[in-house]
Specification:
Layout: E1 20-25, H1 30-45, E2 53-59, H2 65-79, H3 85-92, E3 95-99, H4 105-118, E4 129-133, H5 140-149, E5 160-163, H6 171-184, E6 190-192, H7 200-210, E7 224-232, H8 241-245, H9 248-266, H10 275-288, H11 294-300, E8 301-304, E9 306-307, E10 309-311, E11 314-316, E12 334-340, E13 350-356, E14 363-370, E15 389-395, E16 399-407, E17 415-423, H12 424-428, H13 435-445, H14 454-473, E18 482-483, H15 490-497
Parallel strand pairs: 1-2, 1-4, 2-3, 4-5, 5-6, 7-13, 9-18
Antiparallel strand pairs: 7-14, 8-12, 10-11, 12-13, 14-15, 15-16, 16-17
Helix pairs in contact: 1-2, 1-13, 2-3, 5-6, 6-14, 9-10, 9-14, 10-14, 11-14
C-alpha cells in the first residue's frame, strides 16, 4: 500500500554558498557602490555564505586595500544607515584592490597572483572566481580578451563571468560579443544579467501557472483574449543622458526585460527546474515570435519621446533638456507594440508590450484578460460587463490579483467586478530583497536559471532588428510627442483602439 501523502514544507532548507573570490572590474564605480557591495553585505549579514570569501576591486583611481575598504564601508553606510561599524569593518576586511588601467597587462599578472593568494586552496585554478564586469559596454571586449590571454577564463573550471546589459546593439554586434566571450569562457560559465528575471513575482509566475490546476488548463488561446505587459518608469534618463543617446528604449528595455517577461508568461511547462530546461522553453517562445518587417513596424509599433510636464505635482523637463542629450535628439524613450507568438498555444492572441520613461508612476505589470462569455444572462444593461482578468504586479507592489464578476449586495440582480488579491507582504510577512542579492547568490552557486543564454540574446535581436532599423530611418514626425506625466503618445492608444481594446491603468483614466 502506498504511504501517506507528503506535502512540501512551507519553507525549504536554508541554502548557503561556499568559498569564492569576486573580482569587480570597475570596483569603485557607480554600480559597485550602489548595488554590488550593499548586496554582498546583505548576504553576509543574512549568513548566506558558508566559507571564506574575498572581494577584489580593479580599476582607477588608485587605491590601497585600506582605501578600498573605506569606499566599501561608505557604500554600505549609505544603503544601510543603521549598519553597525564593527560589523561593517568585519565584512570589509575581506576587500582588496588592484589599481591600474583595465587595458594594462600588468594588472592581469597581479590579478592572477592575487587570486592564488586568496583562494582557500592556494590555487587560482581551484578557486570559485566570479569576474563581474561593472564597466561600460565598450570596455567589455578588451577585458574578456585579456582574461583569455592570461588563462583566467576557460582554464579556470570554476570561473564565472557576469556581463551586464546591453548585450550588443543589434544581432551582428551581439554575435560578435558572444563569439569573443565564448572564445574565452564556456557558455555554462557566462552569466548575462537581466535583473527582471530575479524579481520574486516574475519567478513566481512559473509556480502560479504550473502549480495550480485552476490556471494551466485555461492558459491558452481558447480562453485568453490578449496579454498586456507594461514596464513604466516615472524617472527620466537622469545622469545617463550620453548612454541613452546611443541606446534608446528598445535596446535599453524591450530587447531584454520585456522579451524575458513575455517568455515567462508564454513558455511551455519545462521538464524540470534545471537551468537549461527552463531556458530551453523560454527560447522556444523567442523562436515562435512572428517576424516583423518595416511594414509591420510602421503599422503595429509606436515610438515616443517625453517632453516637459508634471509628475507628482512637480514640473519636470523634457528629454531634450536633460544633461548630455542633444537638443534636437530623435532618440525614443517610449515604445508600444503588438506581438504575436505563432505556436499552438498562442495562435491569434495578441501580446501588447509597453514601456516608457516619465510616465505617471513606476509600475511593472503583466495583465492577462480572458475572453468574454458568449452569452449574457444579465440583460441588456450588462452587455458591457467587465471580462475576467489576471494582474501579476511586479513593482512597486508584489501581488497577484484575479478580477472576478460577482453580484452586488442588495435586492437587485446586478453584477459587478471584485478582485481576489494575493499580496506577498501580507501572506508571507515578506519584503522582497533587492534583485542583486539574488543575482549574485545564484552566480556564486552556479545556477544559470535566471540568466539569458547566448541563443536567446541572438534570437531576440533577430526579431527586433527590423523594428529598430525602421524607426531609426523613419523617426516620428513630431518629437517630443508625449508630455511627462502622461501615459505616452496618442498613437499608443490608437494602436489598441484599432483592435477594439484599451490599455489597463489599474482603474485610472489615461492622461494623454
Amino acid at each position: 500500500m502506498p504511504g501517506p501523502m507528503r506535502f512540501c514544507p512551507e519553507q525549504g532548507p536554508r541554502v548557503r554558498v561556499g568559498p569564492f573570490v569576486m573580482v569587480i572590474f570597475g570596483g569603485t564605480g557607480d554600480l559597485a557602490g550602489r548595488k554590488l557591495i550593499p548586496a554582498l553585505y546583505a548576504l553576509h549579514e543574512d549568513r548566506s555564505f558558508s566559507g571564506a570569501y574575498a572581494v577584489v576591486g580593479i580599476g582607477l583611481p588608485a587605491h590601497s586595500d585600506e582605501d578600498y575598504r573605506g569606499f566599501a564601508a561608505a557604500a554600505i553606510k549609505k544603503s544601510s544607515p543603521g549598519a553597525g561599524s564593527d560589523r561593517v569593518a568585519a565584512f570589509t576586511r575581506r576587500f582588496h584592490h588592484l589599481s591600474g588601467e583595465l587595458t594594462d597587462e600588468a594588472v592581469y599578472k597581479k590579478l592572477k597572483a592575487r587570486l592564488a593568494a586568496l583562494s582557500h586552496s592556494g590555487s587560482a585554478a581551484e578557486a570559485n572566481v566570479i569576474f563581474y564586469l561593472a564597466v561600460p559596454p565598450q570596455i567589455v571586449p578588451g577585458i574578456v580578451a585579456a582574461l583569455d590571454r592570461f588563462a583566467l577564463g576557460r582554464a579556470l573550471p570554476n570561473a564565472k563571468l557576469i556581463v551586464e546589459k546591453p548585450f550588443g546593439r543589434d544581432l551582428l554586434s551581439a554575435e560578435d560579443l558572444n563569439r569573443l566571450i565564448l572564445a574565452a569562457f564556456d557558455e555554462k560559465q557566462v552569466f548575462r544579467i537581466d535583473h527582471y528575471l530575479a524579481k520574486e513575482t516574475v519567478q513566481n509566475i512559473l509556480f502560479f501557472r504550473f502549480g495550480n490546476a485552476l490556471f494551466e488548463p485555461v492558459w491558452n488561446a481558447r480562453f485568453i483574449d490578449h496579454v498586456q505587459i507594461t514596464v513604466a518608469e516615472d524617472l527620466g534618463v537622469e545622469h545617463r543622458g550620453s548612454f541613452y543617446e546611443g541606446v534608446g528604449v528598445i535596446r535599453d528595455i524591450v530587447q531584454n526585460h520585456l522579451m524575458q517577461l513575455l517568455a515567462v508568461v508564454a513558455m511551455e511547462p519545462p521538464a524540470g527546474l534545471e537551468a537549461d530546461l527552463v531556458r530551453d522553453e523560454r527560447n522556444k517562445v523567442f523562436h515562435s515570435l512572428r517576424h516583423m518587417d518595416a511594414r509591420y513596424a510602421k503599422a503595429w509599433t509606436v515610438m515616443g519621446q517625453y517632453g516637459p510636464g508634471r509628475i507628482g505635482g512637480r514640473r519636470v523637463r523634457g528629454y531634450r533638456s536633460e544633461p548630455r542629450v542633444s537638443p534636437s535628439s530623435r532618440v525614443s524613450t517610449f515604445f508600444a507594440g503588438r506581438f504575436h507568438i505563432d505556436n499552438w498555444r498562442w495562435a491569434g492572441v495578441p501580446f501588447y508590450l509597453r514601456t516608457g520613461k516619465r510616465l505617471p508612476r513606476r509600475e511593472s505589470e503583466i495583465y492577462i484578460e480572458f475572453k468574454k462569455l458568449p452569452l449574457s444572462l444579465f440583460g441588456r444593461t450588462c452587455e458591457r460587463m467587465a471580462p475576467n482578468g489576471l494582474a501579476l504586479s511586479i513593482q512597486p507592489q508584489e501581488r497577484i490579483s484575479l478580477e472576478l464578476t460577482v453580484k452586488y449586495p442588495g435586492m437587485g440582480n446586478e453584477p459587478g467586478p471584485a478582485p481576489m488579491v494575493f499580496d506577498y507582504a501580507q501572506s508571507f510577512r515578506f519584503k522582497e530583497r533587492p534583485v542583486y542579492e539574488r543575482v549574485l547568490f545564484d552566480c556564486i552557486r552556479g545556477d544559470l536559471t535566471l540568466f539569458p543564454r547566448q541563443d536567446a540574446v541572438e534570437t531576440t535581436w533577430a526579431r527586433l532588428d527590423p523594428v529598430v532599423a525602421y524607426w531609426e530611418s523613419h523617426p516620428p514626425a513630431r518629437l517630443p510627442n508625449y508630455a511627462s506625466g502622461s501615459w505616452g503618445p496618442r498613437e499608443a492608444f490608437e494602436l489598441m483602439a484599432r483592435d477594439g481594446r484599451a490599455w489597463r491603468f489599474s482603474g485610472e483614466q489615461a492622461s494623454r
